[in-house]
Amino acid sequence: MKSSTIIKTAQDFVAIAGNYQTQKAFQQTKNYQTMLLDQKSKHQYCQGCHLAVDDITCQLVEVKTLKNSQYLLLCDYCAKLKLFDQYRLSYDGNDQLIYLPNMSQSELHHLYYACKKNLDDPEVDSFQAKELITELSSLAKYLDDVAGVNISHPGVFVHYYHQVEKSNKFLKDIRWFDGSLLQNKFE
Description:
By secondary structure, the chain is α+β, with helices and mostly antiparallel strands. Helices cover 44% and strands 12% of the residues. It has two domains: 3-85, no CATH class; 92-185, no CATH class. It is built from eight helices and four strands, in the order ααββαβααααβα. The radius of gyration is 17 Å and the shape is globular. The relative contact order is 0.18.
């Protein structure tokens, strides 16, 4: 599996029942801590979106395919996408799915981290970053309007993702957006 192709679109999100709980339990082990340090010494970038490891917090996530299983060093953003089963229909947080066909998920990660860095710096006027985040968030409503259902809700999306009759063409234009910036930075 090439690291440059791990997460491009919503089709690459992984919502396998039990993944998230297994990951949380694994993170509590000594073996996890040892493997995480080993991976951080080998890789200077997130293996999903290529953000520099020094600038972000990372997790070691097991990624399974039909042929094999491997552990990848992923930023928290990419890790959420590989552990998408954490979202239930009862989810009431700010994360959302947006319609964004002209940007890959990895490119959105870079934009997200650039905005976050801008918002976290008290020396910088963050008006443009706030405006961009608000515009991105508004794409969730557009997605709901196009789909005719509240598919921007991650729990609803997970349910849709597992449907046999789902439209893969539709999935290729959906991106995951971390709504925590909206909550934390605009209050």
